[in-house]
Design a protein that fits this description.
The chain is of the alpha+beta class. The protein folds into 3 domains: 28-83; 98-120 and 275-378, Trefoil (Acidic Fibroblast Growth Factor, subunit A) (Trefoil); 121-272. Helix content is 14%, strand content 29%. It has 5 helices and 26 strands. A 4-stranded antiparallel β-sheet has the order 1-2-3-17. A 4-stranded antiparallel β-sheet has the order 7-8-13-12, covered by helices on one side. A 4-stranded antiparallel β-sheet has the order 20-21-26-25, with helices on one face. Strand 7 and strand 8 (181-184) form a beta hairpin.
């Protein structure tokens, strides 16, 4: 599937969950010309009346004064508009407002104190065949026969990292739509939530279809590269087909080792990616606890390293900033590599800023609910 760059950027932004500015940037063409300008011109000469054949000096002076005042007001408006920032990085009253809880070492949303920064579900991504993070499924034989089966994982001998038991939809209660497509983000499921493991069927010798939904596994933007996400995608308008062959929706079941590979590039198989930074309930085992929040509260710059869950640091999913309309952004990624930790500081008793970058912690779409992602976003002025 080939998408225009504009559509790709829009879809990427949707995955990242960026706020959309309510107002577009103003240009001089957005402001109407003063009516006096549209009406200015030569004065019609009245035949047979010398008194009305020419405007009086007083009338010309009045017209000139009105024109001058109108242009002056318009110039002031343009000057004000050029100084006004339509998409500032430090934008209050929403998903960029944070509170440092020095009593328990957590960081909570100022507008939802029961939600704090935490560890999200690890996404399903492409990894190299044989990588220690590759998924080994226990249901491929049943799927090959055309039967329904859950995406359960095999354990033992280092086949599957961490304690995940399967793969399921991150938010089972709703899907997200982008244009004529809908998608559901996938993540690893732990033992306590085994009921959320996705049930699928292998169809047409290529599609891994979600049972009871018109959705199939899809490699994001059909980019066959290590680390790229794989989620459920389907047509959203009743006209757009879900089963589109010849690209990122074609998969091969490797019965020999239990892996699922891209049919376009069999060297890439489904596996575990790095979890994102998300909102979790305060007190949740996956909440991030920091031992040096008092330093952060004093205005000092610290490494975003958590003491619990042990070893996690907040980092970037990629280094280069991406853009969507008037916003710049980088998606978050949690890691256990100390060198991956970003440097942060607390400003205006409100914003968590990235050091050496005009970016702040931002809740996706400013929707304050458990499991929603937190990324790094900045304005363009």
């Amino acid at each position: 599937m080939t998408l225009p760059n504009a559509e790709v950027n829009k879809a990427q932004a949707a995955y990242a969950g960026l706020p959309v500015a309510d107002d577009e940037e103003k240009s001089i063409n957005d402001f109407p010309s003063p009516p006096i300008i549209a009406r200015a011109g030569t004065v019609k000469k009245e035949v047979g009346s010398s008194a009305n054949s020419k405007p009086s000096c007083l009338k010309w002076l009045l017209i000139s004064a009105v024109v001058a005042l109108s242009w002056g007001a318009l110039a002031s408006l343009f000057k004000f508009s050029s100084k006004w920032c339509w998409s500032p990085t430090k934008l209050p009253a929403g998903g960029r407002d944070w509170v440092l809880n020095l009593d328990d070492g957590t960081i909570s949303s100022k507008h939802a104190p029961d939600l704090v920064l935490g560890v999200g579900k690890a996404p399903m991504v492409l990894v190299n065949h044989g990588d220690e993070q590759q998924f080994v499924f226990d249901s491929l034989e049943a799927l090959k026969k055309g039967e329904m089966a859950p995406l359960m994982l095999l354990h033992g001998d280092g086949k599957t990292a961490e304690e995940a038991v399967g793969v399921g939809i991150e938010h089972p209660t709703f899907y997200t739509s982008v244009g004529d497509q809908k998608y559901a983000v996938l993540g690893t499921i732990e033992t306590s939530n085994v009921g959320d493991v996705a049930v699928v069927r292998y169809e047409d010798d290529r599609y891994v279809s979600l049972v009871n939904e018109d959705m199939v596994l899809d490699i994001a933007f059909w980019k066959y590269e290590e680390g790229n996400e794989v989620n459920f995608v389907g047509g959203a308008d009743g006209k757009t087909p879900t089963k589109v062959g010849g690209g990122g929706r074609d998969f091969v079941l490797n019965l020999g080792d239990g892996t699922i590979a891209s049919k376009v590039d069999p060297t890439l198989v489904l596996g575990r990616g790095s979890p994102p930074l998300v909102l979790v309930k305060r007190g949740d085992p996956n909440q991030l606890v920091f031992s040096d929040l008092d330093e952060l509260a004093k205005g000092k710059t610290i490494a975003a390293t958590a003491t619990s869950p042990s070893g996690f640091v907040i980092g970037k999913k990629y280094d280069e900033e991406r853009t969507s309309e008037h916003w710049r952004y980088i998606e978050s990624s949690l890691s256990k590599e100390p060198e991956a930790a970003i440097q942060i500081y607390f400003e205006d008793d409100n914003y968590i800023m990235l050091s050496n970058a005009d970016l702040v912690f931002d809740v996706s779409y400013w929707k304050l609910y458990e499991g929603n992602t937190v990324n790094f976003v900045g304005g363009t002025c």
